[in-house]
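Hi support team,

I'm opening this ticket because the web form for multi-chain structure prediction keeps timing out on my end. I have pasted the exact lines I submitted so you can reproduce it. The total is 734 residues across four entries, so I didn't expect it to be a heavy job. Is there a limit I'm missing, or should I split the entries? Thanks in advance, R.K.
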Amino acid sequence: MEFRRQVTIAQVAREAGVSTVTVSRVINHRPDVAPDTRRRVEQVIGRLGYQPNAIARSLISQHSHTLGVVASRLDYYGPSRILVGVEQKSSELGYALLLCMQHQPESGDVEPILNHLLSQQVEGVIWAVPEIGDNRAWISERAAHLQVPIIFLNMDPHSNLPVVAGDNYLGGQMATRHLLEQGYRKIGAITGPINEWEACQRYLGWRDTLIEAGITIRDCQVFEGDWSAASGERGARLLLADCPELDAIFAMNDQMAMGLLSAVNEAGLSVPRHLAIVGYDDMPESAFLLPPLTTIRQHLRDVGRTAVSLLQSRISEGAVLDYARQAQLETNDALASASFSPDPILIAPELVIRQSSIRRSEQDKLR
Amino acid sequence: MEFRRQVTIAQVAREAGVSTVTVSRVINHRPDVAPDTRRRVEQVIGRLGYQPNAIARSLISQHSHTLGVVASRLDYYGPSRILVGVEQKSSELGYALLLCMQHQPESGDVEPILNHLLSQQVEGVIWAVPEIGDNRAWISERAAHLQVPIIFLNMDPHSNLPVVAGDNYLGGQMATRHLLEQGYRKIGAITGPINEWEACQRYLGWRDTLIEAGITIRDCQVFEGDWSAASGERGARLLLADCPELDAIFAMNDQMAMGLLSAVNEAGLSVPRHLAIVGYDDMPESAFLLPPLTTIRQHLRDVGRTAVSLLQSRISEGAVLDYARQAQLETNDALASASFSPDPILIAPELVIRQSSIRRSEQDKLR
DNA sequence: CTGAAAGCGCTTACAG
DNA sequence: CTGAAAGCGCTTACAG
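Hello R.K., no limit was hit. The queue was backed up. Here is the completed structure from your submission:
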């Protein structure tokens, strides 16, 4: 395999017998070029296969047209869906995408990642690492005076920061209300790691809904899993042993619901006859479980897309601000409009009803 | 939110009372700086929060330290695992990663993607789009004289190109041999889209193994799915209807195996009593199906990691070549060593035996 | 040990 | 309509 060197604008100019400025004008589709000059230059460009050097352009124009996305656990369903949305929207808007993993999302050690992205001159950052424990501690001292705008995904919208998130509290409510409506009263829960924001919100949605319905919750009714199917299986065994009166269990993701299903089956019980089950995520496989799984569908691709839209508007505001500064205008107006922090965007999930949670009376009809 | 402008080397130099060259030497840990000069500069760097501009560095040093990865179907299990491996190894080697999606992988329209990556001056490309139909047609005229090395993933290793792939043919053989060893003889197949290389290899592995065993294959024994669980369900219905004598089915990914399981259950049959099942992929969920699924585990993360290692060695070879050219040396040696194309790297999969394919006699023991 | 000069590939004023 | 000059932020020789 043989590698050619990159063709430069200077070579094109020489071959076409014009100056580099003129070549630049042609590349950028400026109107002020004589028709036949344009044609001549375009021919040379085609012949040499010239491609403008985006790095040189970035340096002079002070715009990298690049966004950074910081993700983690990409081999899980949720994070990869979000990344797909982020990529789609970025590419639609003409941004290149620099991908960074935070391999230990629970640590708050973000300096190397931020420094890497900033040194690459990204124009904005999508922070798609889940909120775990205090892994947002850095925000207060760092994010406030970062050089570029940053959008946070699936994080607690407390601190007046731009956040786009699935409404996990609502999802938890929806799942629980659905079970109540179907006539179930003793509803157990297998949660995700409760120090993760998403897990905690789903848990609170479940808890508050039961409390509002006047149902008291016993400790033995809750098991804290780790999102894995294996933990769902373990949780199921414990709940069935400690709390045999349960008539339903809300597993707070589909993988744990699968482990739960497996354990319930092993115990010789049938779903939903002896125990109703609701999951969370609506993975493509969940419709094909035995029985098909009722679950909460998240529109994660939209979370990713929305985040990029929001980021772009922040970037534009920043540009306005820069312009105002540079022009030494009275900047108050620009500052006011640019520092306007929109309400956090919560994206509502959707209840997908399948057989695993059917009402008892309906079950009888079916047979 | 307020954005600061980037600090430049010139500002650091001014503040520290030295020239920019000296600052540069400090940043790059050159030895030839007086100890207290170094300290003074480092202090200013710390105080101003100076970060070298990677774009300017790339331009002058002619090295972007960036790799491009072209992927598709990231919301599927396989592709996202591969990406994880690619990212891990890239970051270990100090490369930034530019992510590009080919949203329609079946089209061979790769010019925009290649041009984008090349204009971004990536030092190498990982082509992680699956081979579908003739979506590799562009290789013959384009890849051979690309400016940068490119590694192909999960592609037919025919054309003396650098390829890293899972050994799907071997995987197909392993699944089928396992079923034969367990005493099954009438083994149906639900394949992926047969114009995809991976699907086709698994199919051929299955077919050849049966032929070698002296078993004739009837047309009604094969169904072509599209990787989705829904297609697995459809396929199962057809196979069960047209070929009722089947005692096993090899579903060539786990999602289709799930659809198959669901349909078999609906038909009132039990697995593996009436029908044994083997899948392909070993998704984390597959151990928790009812019954747990025997499947072929691919080491996709290793595929990604290996690809990046190979890419790096190609990049180094290219550097050697450049040096040789530049020094006007007798380039034959360098050329010879650099154009050395290694054998395609096939990564062997692994059989994971679970209950869905247990031997009939074993089943009797279990009850 | 330190700095003035040149230049990576491009674009933005400015002058003709 | 066209081009000479300056410069984006950095590094690489070269000279002291």
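A quick check on our side: Residues 18-22, 25, 32-34, 37, 56, 58-62 of chain A lie near DNA strand D (CB under 10 Å from a C1'). Let us know if the file doesn't open in your viewer.
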